[in-house]
């Protein structure tokens, strides 16, 4: 075999390997958990105004005026509308919710999606950001790098950046039967949270129960329905955000876009 033939074989092998890897990546990126539309619509309150801003942002506006807003990042490979019931129930409680669609359903590709969103609703004085699983991690990272965020809501999630020295309010919620959340990493990451962070465990809840997308691989078996888990979650988040109305003094970022 000549040197030229050997070179061609090597090049062909490299090209074949690259194509195989690219195909594998595309299969991974295009595989996701779709919303269970029937289940989600069955628990819809239809009590708030839903506005679509393009094809990557939905706003859930309370019926009355509110000073409180929550930007929400979906979990990894989960269709963002699976969290629509949670957003609707929070809006019904008086919290404006902005639900963000992520590129390839992965928040790691859209960590900065919250940038500038507060300018859409200048009347909102208190902005929170949160998310489920990977979405929560990316939301917390955004909060660590940008001013104007008053608090972080983590659903079955934990931060990768240090928030312990900030005055941010942090709420952490997870289900007792969660089989996806890495508990060892979760406990270790608590050192990155403010010492007064709030933790709530939903008894009988699991990882997928925060949205309406069916069962998730590797998850534990929930003893409560997704509807019940979502209802409890909405009550917990609303209580956390709205319960400090007369005590909160942080109003940064209400007139300007979130800034690093």
Question: How would you describe what is shown here?
Answer:
With 260 residues, the chain is of the alpha/beta class. It folds into two domains: 1-31; 34-242, Alpha/Beta hydrolase fold, catalytic domain (Rossmann fold, 3-Layer(aba) Sandwich), CATH 3.40.50.1820. Helices cover 31% and strands 17% of the residues. It contains six helices and eight strands, in the order ααβββαββαββαβα. It has helices at residues 3-30, 37-42, 84-93, 134-145, 183-189, 226-242; strands at 49-52, 57-61, 68-73, 96-100, 126-132, 151-155, 169-175, 198-202. It has an eight-stranded mixed beta sheet with strand order 1-2-4-3-5-6-7-8, sandwiched between helices. A hairpin with a 4-residue loop joins strand 1 (49-52) and strand 2. Helix 3 (84-93) crosses helix 6 (226-242). The longest helix is centred in the N-terminal third of the chain and has 28 residues, at 3-30. It is globular and about 80 Å long. Residues 16-29 and 245-256 have low confidence and may be disordered.
